[in-house]
Amino acid sequence: MNRPLSRRLCAVVLAGVTAALIGCSVSDETLNATQQRMDELKAKGVPDSALSGVKVYLFEARDCKARDLGGQARKAADSMLMMLRKVEDYYANHVAKLQPVIDSLLAVADQSRSALSGAQIHKLDSLKGVVDSLAKAQRPVEAEKLARALVARMPALLEDQKKADGLAKIIPGTVWECVNKKTSDVFKEVNAVEKKVFTFGKDGKAVYVESEKGRSDKDTKNDYEFVSYGTYDFAGDTIIVRVNRFIAKRQIIDVRWEKDGKESWKRDVGPMYDSAITDGSQDRWISLADLKEDFTRR
User: What is the pTM of this model?
Assistant: First the structure.
């Protein structure tokens, strides 16, 4: 008579234990909220390395929950939340001290600003602008990291300025020409002249002319001339020509065709145009070493 009762009692107890185990699991809301909090921290500049432990416990909690291991899921979730709170507390306390550090680093960089000019001061101001933008976007961790990188870069900028000052003494008011004569031992008909000319005015304006005329290879004859106008600046030992106007004065290409042993030439005449350039697509860079090696000063 007691056996059926004992079986019913065991069934009730087993059901209670099962319910308890299920009740010990972690909710999807908790897991999703944890992921959201992690995403917010990452958006503020907290590195992945600081959140790696939280990620591990989050994965473990989800995996255990999927396998109906409620107790283990709950345990992993508790560790996950505890570690996440520590990261958030550290971030909150650390961030409160970052803005004065950022300001101090930028002040250090500004101490050398008066010694810079041209491309060097543009680079300094551009990096400072990024630091300010990150700070205003509530991403002080990244802002502080970049500010430190800027300070570390200042000696290199000052060294570049010395090189730029050297260029400023010899480049303005000069004209440099590169002439390349194209010939071929195989095809005697090849005989073209390619020219590139840089003119650097004392007023900071520059003109760059590219042209070619003649048969450049077995199958092509070129006759073109392009002129770029703009200003120039120095970035270390490199001259930057910032082009704001591009003119195609002439662009003619003759292509050789051969059919049934007969040779003919087909001409392609490109349009002539005068365009304003605003996107930097036609800018030119040339180092002093390359200028001296490939060009002749006229």
Answer: 0.68
What are the residues facing 251 on neighbouring strands?
224
Q: Which residues are within 8 A (CB) of 73 and not within 5 positions of it... i.e. 6 or more apart?
A: 24, 25, 26, 60, 61, 62, 64, 65
Residue corresponding to tokens 């073109």: 224
- The tens digit of pLDDT for each residue in 216-232 reads 998 999 999 999 999 99
User: Which residues lie below 8 Å from residue 274, measured CB to CB, with a gap of 6+?
Assistant: 245, 246, 247, 248
Q: Kindly state the tokens that stand for 105.
A: 């680093």
Instruction: Give residue limits of the domains in the chain.
Output: 2-95, 98-170, 174-297
DSSP letters along 180-220, please? EEEE-SS-TT-EEEEEEEEEE-TTSEEEEEEEEEEEEETTE
CA gap 63, 75 in Å, rounded: 12
